[in-house]
Design a protein that fits this description.
This protein is α/β, with parallel strands linked by helices and about 1000 residues long. The chain is about 45% helix and about 15% strand. The strands form seven sheets. It has a seven-stranded mixed beta sheet, with helices on both faces. A seven-stranded parallel beta sheet has the order 14-15-13-16-17-12-20, with helices on both faces. β18 and β19 form a beta hairpin.
C-alpha cells in the first residue's frame, strides 16, 4: 500500500508522523491496519475477528472440536475463557501459554520463532501470527478519549503509543503527561496493569519512553532510547526519524515492533517480578534487549570459543541482562538444530553469591531443575557439571579446588561462562582451573613435551568455551582478555552502556555534581632534641598519620561533617537521607565515630546518630573495641539497622565501600586517599536512585577534584586502551630470569621433567624442592641486596604476566611453561627481604601546636562528553618496596611486642613474617583480595596467615609463645601484613 500523501498545509502535523509509523508497519513489518469502530471491542479490549481468524487458520482441528462441542456458543466460550485468563494472569503469560477449554481443547494464542528452520510446520505457524495496528483507538465506554496507536498480536493488545510531533512544539514528555493525566487505568481493560496492553510508549521523532504500569500521576516512564554518541538520546538515521528503530529495520538491528523482536520480547524477555509486596512488570530497556540479541546472534553465527566484554554501567539492570542471556543461550541451536551450548555457568567474584541474580534467573526457569545454584561444596559443582545441569551459578573460587581437577571428558561439551563483574581475577589461577576443568580430555599423551604443550594450550583460548564478561569498569587486563579487536587493532567492548548514558537517562546519579574539597594545614613542633629521621620531604609523610589522628584535627573535621549533614543533607528524602564517612584506617574510623558522638551530645542534637563499621578487634587507649561492642548489636544487623530511622551516619574503614547498596545515601565525607578504580567504586555508593533523590554531596578532606575526575574518566564512556600490550615482553622477562646469576637452565629442565610426568609422590616433592634449592643457595650467597630484590620482583612479574599472556594467545612454547612451573616453586622458597630500620612516632616526640581546616574547591566535578582517558597497557614490571607507612607500622608492632612480653625482638625477626606473607599470597589469594571488599576477605587471609606463622615459628619457642598466646599482638601483625598484601594485590 503506497504511503498517504499530504498537503503543504498539514505535512507538519502529528497525524503525518502517526501515518508514517503505520505505513512502515504495514509495508515493511507485515502488519495489517484495522479500523477502530469496525474491529475493536471496547469492553474486552480485543480485536475478536482477528483472534478467531488466527485460531481457525492455525488450529483447525481444535476449532472443529470446539464447534462440535459448543456449536453457536463456540466464539463466546473462547472469549469467556480468555477474559478469565487475562484477569488472573498477566497478558504476556496468557499469550505465551494459551488457553484450555473442556473437553481438553487447547488453543495457542501465539506461535514463537523456532530454534531452527528444520521443521517447516513450526516456521509456518510462526509466520501465521497476525500482527495488526489500529489508529485513534477510542478505548473507553466512559469518554471519547483516543490513544494514537495500539498494536496487537492475534487480536490481543500488546502496546499503546501516544505520538507527539516536534514540529508542533510537542515532544514525548507531553505524551508522558497525557498518559499520567488523561489515561486513567481504572475500569479500562486496555490500560489495566497486567490485564491490558503490556507496554505503553511515549514517542516523538527523537525519543521514546515506556512504562508497563499506568498509575495516573504516579506513573514512571523509563527511556527506551539507543544512546547517542555515548550519552542519552538517539543517533541520526539517514532519511528517517531518530526513533525509526521502533518501526523500521535498520542496518544494525530489527525494529522493536517487528515480528521477530516483538514476539521475542513476549516469549523470552518480559516477566513479572515480585518482592516486598510489590509487583513490577519488567520490559527490557534498549541496551538490555540489544546486548542480549546481539550476543545470541554472534554466538549463533560463530559458535563456541568466543569472547564478549559487555561494559554496562551501574544502573543498567545487569542482573536481568545476565539472566536473559543465560536462559536464551542454552536454547540456542545451530543450522542442524543442535544446541550450541550444553551449559551456561554464571561466575561471580563475590564470596557470597548474589541472591538477586539467583532469584532473577530462577524466575525465568520454565522447567524445574534448569538452574542449579552451587552455594555448597566444590563437589556439588563437579557433580552439576558432570550431570549436565543447564545453568549453574557459582563462584570462581570453587573451580580452584581438588574436586574439579579430576573432571575428565568435558572437552566434548560446550560452555558459556558468564562472568559477573569481570576484573583481573579472570586472568589468574582460579580462572585457569576453570578452563582446565571445562576442557580436560579423558586421556593424555605419555610424551613429556606433548604434556607440557597441552598444559600450556589449556591456558589459552578454548574452542569449547565462550566467555561473556559483564563489568562497568573494565581494567586493562579485562579489556585485553575479553575485548574484541577493532579496526584500530585494539580491544573494545562488544557492547556498551556507558556511565554517561546511565547518568543522563537518570538510572544513576552523578556523584561528582556537588564536590567540595577541604585543605588541612598543620603546624607541628618536635618535643625531643634528637630527631635524625625527621629531615626533608619524608618528615611530612612520616608524621601524617600522627597528625591526622590528632584529636584537634578530627574535632574540626567532625564539626564540618555534622554541620554540613544537618544543614544540607538531613532534610533530603523527606528526612530519611543517610551519609557515609570514609576513613583511612580502623583507628581513624573509631576515633571519628567517638568524636561524632561527643559533638552530637555536646551540642544537644537529637536528630542525628552514628554507627561505625570495621573488622576485627581494635585496642584503643587500653580498651578493646569491636564493631559489635561499639554499635551495641551484631555486625550482620548493621545494613538493616542503618536502613531504619534511628541512624543517619555510617563511619567506615575498609568496609561497605564496595557492593553496599543503600539508595538513601546522599552524602559522603572522605578522609582517605582514593585513586583509580577504588575511587570510582567507593564514590559509586552514592549513585543509587531513590524517590526524591535528585542530588548528592561529597566533602573530601584528602583528594582534589581533579584527582577524582581523572579516576572516573576511563569509565565515563567506552573504556579504551592507549595501545595493546606487547605480549612479546614475556620473552624479555624470561631472558632476564635466565641471564640472572641464580637460575640454571638444566635445573629448570630437570625440574620440569619430573613435575610434568603425571601423578607425583612424596619423594618427587623432595627431589623437586632439592632442585629448586640449588638456585636458592646461589641467591643467599649474593650480598647485593638490590639485585636480590630486583630478582624477586622479576619472578612475580613473570608469573603474573605469563598467566595473562597464556590466556590470550597460543604460545606453543614448552620452555615458557617449564619456566613458569619452576619459578612458582622458586618464588615460594626464596628467603624474605629485609627493610631499613624506622622509628615510632609518639606524643613524646611531636606536638600539634596549630591546625586549620580551610575550604578548597567547591562546585561540580562532573565529566562532560568526550572527557575520557585511555588506560595504559601492561608494560611496567617494577619492584615493590616497603612504604613509609608500612615501615612505621612495623616499628609499632615490634615495640608493642617487646613492651608486652619483655623481649627484644628485632626488625629482622619480624620480617620473617614477610616470608609467611609470600607463602600464602598465591594467585588465588591475590585474586580474592583484588576483587572483594577487605571485610569479606580478611577472615580467609587471617586464617592462612596464622597457619603460616605457626609453621614459621615451630623451632622458635619464644616467638611461638607470643604468636599463640597474645591475640592482640597477633591481630596487630596480621593487620599489618594484610594491608601489605592488599597493596600488592591492587598493584597487579
Amino acid at each position: 500500500m503506497p504511503e498517504q500523501t499530504h498537503t503543504t498545509a498539514d505535512i507538519h502535523q502529528e497525524k503525518v508522523f502517526e501515518a508514517h509509523i503505520v505505513s512502515c508497519l504495514t509495508t515493511e513489518q507485515g502488519y495489517i491496519e484495522r479500523d477502530c469502530p469496525a474491529h475493536y471491542d471496547v469492553s474486552l479490549a480485543l480485536d475478536t475477528e482477528l483472534l478467531f481468524r488466527f485460531l481457525r487458520t492455525t488450529q483447525p482441528d481444535a476449532w472443529q472440536v470446539l464447534q462440535d462441542h459448543y456449536s453457536a456458543q463456540a466464539e463466546a466460550e473462547v472469549l469467556k475463557r480468555l477474559e478469565k485468563a487475562l484477569k488472573e494472569n498477566p497478558t504476556h503469560v496468557v499469550v505465551r501459554d494459551g488457553i484450555k477449554l473442556v473437553p481438553n481443547i487447547r488453543f495457542a494464542l501465539c506461535y514463537f520463532k523456532p530454534a531452527s528452520n528444520l521443521n517447516p510446520e513450526l516456521v509456518n505457524l510462526y509466520e501465521a501470527n497476525i500482527l495488526s495496528v489500529i489508529r485513534q483507538v477510542t478505548y473507553s465506554s466512559k469518554n471519547k478519549n483516543a490513544i494514537d496507536l495500539v498494536t496487537f498480536v492475534n487480536g490481543i493488545p500488546v502496546a499503546t503509543l501516544e505520538v507527539k510531533n516536534l514540529l508542533t512544539k510537542q515532544n514525548f514528555k507531553h505524551a508522558e503527561r497525557q498518559y499520567q493525566k488523561d489515561r486513567s487505568p481504572g475500569g479500562e481493560p486496555l490500560l489495566t496493569f497486567k490485564r491490558g496492553a503490556i507496554v505503553h510508549l511515549a514517542v516523538d521523532q527523537d525519543n521514546v519512553s515506556m512504562t508497563t504500569r499506568l498509575m495516573n500521576g504516579k506513573t514512571r516512564f523509563l527511556p527506551l532510547n539507543r544512546g547517542r554518541d555515548g550519552g542519552a538520546g538517539n543517533p541520526d538515521v539517514p532519511g528517517e526519524n531518530r526513533t525509526a528503530y521502533l518501526y523500521k529495520d535498520l542496518p544494525d538491528g530489527k525494529a522493536i515492533l517487528s515480528r521477530e523482536v516483538l514476539l521475542d520480547l513476549i516469549g523470552r524477555f518480559i516477566h513479572l517480578e515480585r518482592g516486598g509486596g510489590k509487583e513490577v512488570l519488567i520490559f527490557p530497556r534498549f541496551q538490555q534487549l540489544d546486548a542480549v540479541r546481539k550476543l545470541l546472534a554472534d554466538a549463533k553465527a560463530k559458535g563456541a570459543g568466543q569472547n564478549y566484554l559487555i561494559q554496562h554501567s551501574a544502573g543498567s539492570g545487569k542482573s536481568n541482562t545476565i539472566a536473559w542471556t543465560a536462559h536464551q543461550i542454552i536454547n540456542l541451536h545451530d543450522a542442524e538444530d543442535r544446541p550450541l551450548f550444553d551449559t551456561a555457568i554464571i561466575v561471580t567474584d563475590r564470596l557470597v553469591l548474589d541472591r538477586q541474580l539467583q532469584n532473577t534467573i530462577g524466575s525465568f526457569a520454565q522447567t524445574a531443575g534448569v538452574v542449579k545454584k552451587i552455594d555448597g561444596t566444590s563437589r556439588d559443582l563437579k557433580k552439576a557439571i558432570e550431570d549436565g545441569a543447564r545453568i549453574i551459578i557459582t563462584t570462581i573460587q570453587k573451580f580452584g579446588t581438588e574436586h574439579l581437577q579430576a573432571i575428565s571428558g568435558q572437552s566434548s561439551k560446550n560452555f558459556a561462562v558468564i562472568i559477573d563483574e569481570a576484573h583481573s581475577s579472570q586472568s589468574g589461577k582460579a580462572a585457569q582451573a576453570m578452563s582446565d576443568a571445562l576442557t580436560r580430555e579423558a586421556g593424555s599423551s605419555d610424551d613429556i613435551e606433548d604434556m607440557i604443550l597441552a598444559h600450556q594450550a589449556a591456558r589459552g583460548p578454548q574452542k569449547n568455551i565462550s566467555f561473556l564478561a559483564f563489568t562497568a569498569t573494565p581494567r586493562n587486563v579485562t579489556l585485553e582478555r575479553f575485548g574484541r579487536i577493532g579496526s584500530d587493532g585494539k580491544p573494545h567492548p562488544f557492547h556498551l552502556y556507558s556511565m554517561r548514558q546511565a547518568i543522563e537517562e537518570g538510572f544513576i546519579l552523578d556523584v561528582l555534581q556537588n564536590y567540595m574539597t577541604y585543605k588541612a594545614y598543620y603546624k607541628l613542633e618536635k618535643t625531643i632534641e634528637d630527631d635524625p629521621a625527621f629531615k626533608g620531604r619524608k618528615a611530612q609523610s612520616r608524621v601524617a598519620r600522627y597528625a591526622s589522628l590528632h584529636p584537634t584535627a578530627i574535632d574540626q573535621k567532625v564539626e564540618v561533617i555534622v554541620k554540613h549533614f544537618r544543614r544540607h543533607v538531613s532534610k533530603e528524602l523527606s528526612g530519611t537521607a543517610k551519609a557515609m564517612v570514609v576513613t583511612q584506617s580502623r583507628e581513624h574510623a573509631l576515633r571519628y565515630w567517638q568524636q561524632i558522638n561527643r559533638y552530637i551530645e555536646a551540642n544537644g542534637h537529637t536528630d542525628v546518630k552514628a554507627l561505625v563499621a570495621f573488622s576485627g578487634d581494635l585496642d584503643i587507649d587500653g580498651q578493646v573495641w569491636t564493631e559489635a561492642t561499639a554499635n551495641g548489636f551484631a555486625e550482620t544487623e548493621l545494613p538493616k539497622r542503618f536502613d531504619g530511622e534511628e541512624f543517619q551516619i555510617l563511619v567506615v574503614a575498609e568496609k561497605y565501600q564496595t557492593g553496599f547498596d543503600q539508595p538513601k545515601l546522599v552524602a559522603m565525607y572522605v578522609d582517605k586517599k582514593l585513586a583509580g578504580l577504588q575511587a570510582v567504586q567507593t564514590l559509586a555508593r552514592l549513585n543509587r536512585t531513590y524517590p526524591g533523590k535528585e542530588r548528592t554531596f561529597v566533602l573530601d578532606f584528602q583528594n582534589t577534584a581533579e584527582d577524582v575526575k581523572e579516576a572516573f574518566a576511563p569509565f565515563f564512556e567506552a573504556t579504551e586502551l592507549e595501545e595493546r600490550t606487547d605480549l612479546s615482553q614475556i620473552y624479555d622477562l624470561e631472558q632476564r630470569i635466565c641471564n640472572s646469576a641464580y637460575v640454571a637452565n638444566d635445573e629448570v629442565e630437570r625440574f620440569a621433567e619430573r613435575f610434568f610426568k603425571g601423578d607425583l609422590t612424596t619423594q618427587d616433592r623432595l627431589e623437586l624442592e632439592g632442585t629448586v634449592r640449588l638456585a636458592v643457595e646461589r641467591f643467599i650467597l649474593d650480598e647485593d641486596e638490590a639485585q636480590q630484590e630486583e630478582f624477586r620482583q622479576l619472578l612475580k612479574s613473570f608469573q603474573r604476566f605469563y598467566a595473562f599472556v597464556a590466556q590470550v594467545a597460543f604460545l606453543n612454547d614448552a620452555w615458557l611453561e617449564k619456566l613458569y612451573a619452576y619459578t612458582a616453586w622458586l618464588t615460594r622458597l626464596l628467603p624474605s627481604r629485609d627493610v631499613p630500620a624506622d622509628i615510632t612516632i609518639t606524643d613524646d616526640m611531636l606536638t600539634l601546636s596549630a591546625f586549620r581546616l580551610q575550604e578548597g574547591e567547591a562546585g561540580s566535578a562532573s565529566l562532560v562528553a568526550g572527557e575520557t582517558k585511555k588506560l595504559d597497557p601492561i608494560s611496567e614490571f617494577g619492584a615493590n618496596p616497603y612504604t613509609e607507612e608500612e615501615e612505621k607500622s612495623l616499628s609499632e608492632i615490634i615495640d608493642s611486642f617487646n613492651e608486652r612480653h619483655g623481649t627484644n625482638f628485632s626488625r629482622e625477626d619480624f620480617l620473617r613474617f614477610e616470608r609467611v606473607n609470600r607463602e600464602i599470597l598465591d594467585e588465588d589469594m591475590l585474586d580474592m583480595m583484588r576483587n572483594n571488599p577487605a571485610d569479606v576477605v580478611y577472615n580467609a587471609f587471617s586464617q592462612a596467615f596464622f597457619q603460616g606463622m605457626v609453621r614459621m615459628f615451630q623451632q622458635d619457642n619464644e616467638m611461638r609463645s607470643v604468636v599463640m598466646t597474645d591475640k592482640d599482638a597477633r591481630e596487630q601483625a596480621t593487620r599489618h601484613f594484610f594491608k601489605r598484601a592488599q597493596r600488592q594485590a591492587n598493584a597487579t
